[in-house]
Design brief:
By secondary structure, the chain is an alpha/beta fold. It is 43% helix and 13% strand. The protein is built from 13 helices and 13 strands. A 7-stranded parallel sheet has the order 3-2-1-4-5-6-11, sandwiched between helices.
Length: 377
């Protein structure tokens, strides 16, 4: 655990219900990338209630509640009965839902990611249950004014997560804040429930579609396999940890940007693709001054320019010169990850990505297609 983190308290075990055999955990964001993996982790030990707004989970291990995180009392009805009944059933709250689409209007990102926390804090207080809040390690990064102007969605996301954490700290509700970095696919299989920005970026690097990237060669991109994240969250909940802030990160083991580029190039060669040129790495301070103005003034197709803007936005937020702290491997917080673990997980993520794109890889193996391919991974 980081030196500046408060010493965790361990909650006394709640009395076992006389009717229910297992405690009930309410999860938000169960349909998301991390939420699906959290269901896998927690289903063996908890009766799971999952709040969802529209998209059903179709998972027999959970009981779904149709509700709106932005509505008073989840919008469960005009009266308070359903809300109070829900509070009587819930023993633990795990709030994983968030607006992560940076193309969403900034004010909507902030509203979703703060009002949702307020709703769950209200429920946890009513239920006398601990709340575990999924935040992000990148609250440690402060966007510049230029970042806010060019990338308002990413800036709003970080601001909303900082505000959400503050709401948690001020609430007095027991529980903990967990801060994962970039969540990768499973360390053993590479599988992930949905395509994240990281997956799309490394796939495009394999295909040679990323000639430039913002960042110094030694800049770290902290990434962590999803099973390391869910194992840590599960350990905190099962251990009854009632306070603290936990960094679920690779820390000093995070790979450098240049190493990620080399791994993608080696993967391409092993799969019969032309070896992609290593992207030209542009110092972050030059991104606003050189890279983005250059893209805006060229005749490149709009889709290509948008893709490069997306990479710039991701890496301006997700890379760091200095490593994060990491809480993994401390009491009640999962397993510490090694540099070799991250390298192996990155390759397995690429293998999982490639397994779903045999047609794309086949076209890029043909020399005639390589020169003209513009398909986005």
């Amino acid at each position: 655990m980081p030196l500046n983190a408060p010493r965790p308290t361990v909650l006394p075990a709640p009395p076992r219900p006389t009717v229910r055999e297992r405690p009930t955990l309410l999860l938000t964001g169960g349909s998301g990338v991390l939420g699906r993996a959290l269901i896998d982790e927690l289903a063996p030990d908890y009766d799971l209630l999952c709040v969802r707004r529209t998209r059903p989970l179709h998972d027999p291990r959970v009981r779904e509640i149709e509700g709106d995180l932005l509505a008073p009392r989840l919008g469960l009805g005009a009266g308070a009965g359903a809300w109070y009944e829900l509070a009587l059933r819930v023993d633990v709250v795990l709030h994983s839902a968030a607006q992560t689409n940076w193309r969403t209007p900034p004010e909507e990102i902030v509203r979703t990611n703060t009002v949702g926390v307020e709703t769950m804090l209200d429920l946890a207080a009513r239920a006398d249950a601990p709340l575990y809040l999924v935040s992000t390690a990148f609250v440690a990064n402060t966007p510049s004014e230029e970042d806010r102007e060019r990338f308002p969605g990413a800036a709003a996301y970080l601001s909303s997560k900082i505000s959400a954490e503050q709401l948690m700290r001020e609430s007095g509700v027991p529980g903990a804040i967990v801060r994962p970095s970039v969540v990768m696919g499973h360390s053993a299989t590479g599988h992930i429930a949905g395509q994240q920005g990281l997956t799309k970026t490394i796939g495009a690097m394999v295909l040679g579609q990323v000639p430039v990237l913002p960042g110094a060669p030694e800049a770290r991109v902290d990434m962590i396999p999803q099973d390391y994240v869910t194992r840590a969250v599960g350990a905190l909940i099962r251990g009854g940890v009632g306070s603290g802030e936990y960094w679920l990160t690779a820390g000093s083991q995070a790979p450098a940007l240049s190493e990620i580029a080399d791994t993608c190039a080696e993967f391409a060669v092993r799969h019969g693709l032309p070896r992609p040129l290593r992207p030209r790495l542009i110092p972050v301070e030059a991104v606003h001054r050189l890279l983005l103005p250059m893209l805006e003034s060229t005749s490149l197709p709009a889709s290509v320019r948008q893709r490069f803007r997306h990479y710039a936005e991701l890496l301006l937020v997700f890379q760091r010169e200095l490593p994060f702290d990491s809480s993994l491997g401390t009491p009640h917080c999962g397993t510490r990850v090694t540099h070799a673990d991250i390298r192996a997980a990155l390759v397995r993520n690429l293998e999982s990505w490639a397994a779903d794109r045999s047609g794309v890889l086949g076209r890029h193996r043909a020399p005639a297609a390589v020169a003209s391919a513009t398909e986005v991974a």
